[in-house]
Structure formats: C-alpha cells, structure tokens
Amino acid sequence: MRLTPILAFAFALASTATLADTTVHYDWLTQGEVSGELVLTRHDDGARSVHFEFNDRGRGPFLDTRFEVDGSGRVRHFESRGKAYMGAPVEEVFTYEDGVAEWRSTLESGEARSVSLDAFYLANDSSPEYLAAMARALLAAPGQSLPIWPVGTASIEKLAEETVAHNGESKLASLYAINGLGFDPQYLWLDEEQELFALAMGWMGLVPQGWAEVLPALDARQQSAERAQLADRAAALTHELPDAYCLRDFRVLDVDAGRLRDASTVRVEDGLIKAVGANDSIDCSGLSVLEGQGRSLIPGLWDMHVHVGATDGALHVAAGVTSVRDLANTHERLMETIGQFQDGTAIGPDVYRAGFIDAAGPFAAPTGNLAESLDEALGYIEQIHEQGYRHIKIYSSIHPEWVAPMAAAIHERGMRISGHVPSGMSAEAAIRDGFDEIQHINMVFLNFLAGPDDDTRTPVRFVLVAEEGGDLDLDSEEVQAFIDLLVREDVVVDPTVAIFDDMFRHRSGEVSPSYAMIADHLPPNVRRSMLGGRMDINEENAERYAASAQALLDMIRRLHEAGVPLVAGTDALPGFTLHRELELYVQAGIPNAEVLRLATIGSAELLGEGDAVGRIAPGYRADLVALDGDPLDDIRAIRRAAMTLQGQRLYRPADIHRALGIKPFAEPFELDD
C-alpha cells in the first residue's frame, strides 16, 4: 500500500499569534483501533512542530516536522525528517527569504523568485496537520485559491458541517475539499477555530485523542458529499446509447485466435452482442452507427486485484477496464460502491467480489473479519458464503494450521480460496492444504527464500525478495518441482508484478518506472508524488534489487510456459497500473495475444463468466474498448483508448481524463449530436 496524497503532501498554518507552547494529541485509527498518533505542538513563537507515525502491518511513516507561516498562513519555513511509509529516508527543507523560495529534499530541489510570499509550498512528506495548514491558508486567500510551489494551483470549498460530541463536549466540524493536489479532492475536517479535527479515510482515520466514536458519523457525511460529486461527474460524462446500435468499420480482436479481423461490424441489442462480421454482412439499417474508422476493438480489460472505491471507477473505465475483482473490502462499503456503479451515479466497472479473512494480531490487515480462533474463522466463512461471495482471500496472519480446515470449509460451499501465504508457512504447504490461487509473485519467491525466523507479516516479505530474489536459480530442480506442483494442482498465480518492479527499481528522486511513460500526461502534483521511492535504494543495493526485479519477470515467463494460469491484477493506481502489468508480461516474454487473452476471456473463465463476457461474439456483453493502434503489434496501444462501452453506456476516455486533470492519450471518439 502506498500513502494517499493526504499523507504524502505537507501543509502550513494560519496565525502567528503569540501563545504559550500547547500540545494536542490525535489518534490514528485503523478499524476503530488506535494504530498511531499525531502530536502537534504550537510554540510560543508561532511555529508548529508535529510528530506523526502509524503502524500498518509493520509499515508506516515516522516523521518529525516543523513549520512557520506568515500572517496569511503561507509557509516561510518547513522541514521534515524521518522515514516514509515503506521506509525510504525523508529529509526535506523549504525556506522563503528575501524574495527567494528554495526547496531541497531527497527527491528534488529547486527555487522560485517572488517579491511577496504569494504561493504555498507543497511538501513531499509531512502530516495531516500540514494539510490543515494549507486549508487555512486557502481559506484566507483571495478566491480561496493559491499557486503551489513547486507547481500547480490549489483551491478549497466547504461541503458540510457536522456537530459531534464526546464526554459531554460538542464540536462543530466542517468538511472541506481541497482541489488541485490529485485526481480527486482531498478531504479533511476542521473545527470552529479552523484547527485540524479529523480525517475520514474508510478503514483508517484521524481524530483528537479519545474521540474515535465520532469518526463513523464524519465518514458517513463525507461519503454523502463525495457521492454527490461523483453523481454530477457521471451525469456529465456518460452517453446513453439506444437499445440497438452498430459499431462499424473496426478491427475486431478475436481473443481465441489471437488476431484482428479487419473491416468488421458489431451489432448490439439490449447491451448484448447480437452479431459480428464483415462490414457488408451485418444489417444496421435504421440503427445508430458508431464509426470505428479502422480502430482496434477489444473486449473490456479485467483487473483481477483491486480494493475498489467509488472514486476509482472513472480511472478504471478510462483505461478500458470494464471488470474488476475486489480482493479485500468491507462488505457494506463494497456493496454501496457496486450500487453506485450499477445505477450510474458513479462511473465504474463491473465488480466481482471476494470475501476476506485474517487473524487478529499486531500485523492484521486493516479491514474486517479478523478471527481470534479457527472457529471464528469458520464462522466468517459461513457469513461470507451467505452474503453471496464465491471466493475468499486469506491473509498473512492466519495461523498455518487453520489453512486446511478453512480450505475444506470454503470448498464445501463451492467457493475458491486464495491469498497471501500465511507467515510461517511455505507456498508449497499452502497449496497442499487447499490454496486455489496465490496473490503476489513475491509469495512464490518466499517459498524458497523465507526461513522459520522470517516474519512475512511484516515488510520482510518485500525486503527478503529484493535482497535475494536475483540469486535464486530458477532452473533448479527445487523451483521446477514447485512449478510442476502449481500445474498439477491447477493453482492460479496473481503476480501484481508492477508493484514489485516499481518497489525494487524506483530510486527516490526519479519518476516511478511504472508511470514514467505517462507522467507528462498527469496532473503536476500527481507526477511529483511519483518521485518518492518505496524502498531505500542506493548505490550499494541498486544493482542487486534490479536483478531481483528481473528475476520476477523470468519466473512469470517460466510459469506461463509451464501452463500455470496467470491473472492480471494490480493492487495499485487504477487503470494505469494494469497497462504497466500487461506491458511487463510482454517484457517477460509472453506474446501480446496471450497477454490480451489472459486479461480478457482468461479472467472471465476463471470466475465462471466465460460464456457471458470477455469475447467479441454473439451473446456476450458489449463490454468493449476502441483503441488507437494495434495491441498485437505493440502492447502500449492499450493506453490509447478512444472509447469504452458498457452495454448502452458509452464513455470517451479523453473526456474522463480531462475531468481528472489528465492530458488525453487518444483523440476523443466522434459522436453524432
């Protein structure tokens, strides 16, 4: 998990009034339990110091920051030291003096000249208190908008108020949205004095110490405001098509034959494909016709590893992703998100649900269904089954001896079991105990690298593979025997290799290798956030880590060649990361046609939907994507989606991208007025 922009950005304060030093404590909460803290000290000279840390399965920031502002709340001085979420070192300083703004960090350096302090410095690594400081500065600014150093513009709007109470004390909290920092607004709650009150972030959040009970109400109110914004976006960007229409003059991808059929027409009725054939063989008389002008037409792509929220949907659809598999979410929020996608009040893909179970403990996943015993885990299995799930993912804290009885209970109910290999267990043992699928390619490597003392609930599961993965002999008898076991037991592997390729090769100060090819299209502060590496890569370990990244690709090629089923998932930034995932499969040596097949009909077949979606053929859903380019010749063409269809809903990715501050990758699809 990467830090959200809220936790990666930094912000300043509003008043320089002279006060005695005052310390305020906040709790960082995960699933309602304290998992970290923010300690704010307001100094008598007007400066503020913040210590911020939390523990997310052994990961999390550990930062000490200090900043000073002028009378308008704009930062004169800022400094931050410590470590980022995945452990990369942080050292950052900003100053404004004598008309010169200068910034220097482990990621970048620069300067700007300005007669007056007329912009706000956006730090790379800070705390929610700095976000509150930015909010105060924006509220005091003309038009509630300010330029940002090093780049961009931010604005703020008030969305709601909520009165909350704790131990007889009541507070009026106001919800604000800051625009200009990412694809979507950044939300925060301020109190009556415009001091930081809360962050509501789903299963995580921040409140004044002891006020945990008020967070659900704030989260619900924030979700309501967010739903209204998403509904407005969906209404503006969704084009409703008639019951019957034709797509004419496309190069249609036959995913089974692995080739494009030129000059083809597809007739769609009631959201289903009625006929496919040569242009002159399909009757389109009296119907609306969408002219392809020779574009490629492929089935909608699948992302088989997401943790979807309503704000993610537009990025998925703009990338041509029309179906996703959610692998860990709260049931209530997931069902709400699915409802928004289905009724068109948010743009988003079809969602296939997997339930989730972990064991309670210090490294438990930050979501629900945390079992204290095997009996409780078996109870969760029954509950998940009754909720209509067909798949359960388990996590790293599950006790190894629970796996076999859990797998038996899951299989008895006709469901699949997948997940992280539990700490203290080998992947081979997990397969023999009933695993149907393994999430993440690092779990395959840990089968050979992890010893009895390696706690893979922690970041050890990343560091060990980065340090030693490149030395593993992939042609050894041990590795081959394991691959044979995967084939024999028909075990699926969900590599999510893009996140590990990024983790092992991304040096801080450089644009992430996962997104470097699209960085110039992204909003400036999204691009800037991609400068931060996840691990501490330096001259001593860079070559070794890069060799491990290559070993992951080499393993994926061997798995595919042996016949191990692969599915394309991301567990990262929606849409763009799937494109990178598929590109890496091609780099690994898998032919383009086979990569496209596994990301379309291959995924559908795994989920039992192979007769309904994933092909361009009669009777299949019209989940389709028009591309500028030939993905069989160059897989990068999947980034140039000109149109995404979901039955009778048509989306122009160029329009979605512009709404999110992204420079389009393809010309917008022409529509008749």
UniProtKB/TrEMBL annotation:
Keyword terms: Hydrolase
Lineage top rank: taxon: Bacteria
Gene3D superfamilies reported in the protein's UniProt record: Metal-dependent hydrolases, Urease, subunit C, domain 1
Pfam families the UniProt entry points to: Amidohydro_1 (PF01979)
Keyword match Hydrolase: yes
InterPro entries hit by this protein: Amidohydro-rel, Metal-dep_hydrolase_composite, Metal_Hydrolase, Metallo-dep_Hydrolase
SUPFAM superfamilies: Composite domain of metallo-dependent hydrolases (SSF51338), Metallo-dependent hydrolases (SSF51556)
A GO term, aspect molecular function: hydrolase activity, acting on carbon-nitrogen (but not peptide) bonds
Protein name: Amidohydrolase
Annotated organism of origin: Wenzhouxiangella marina
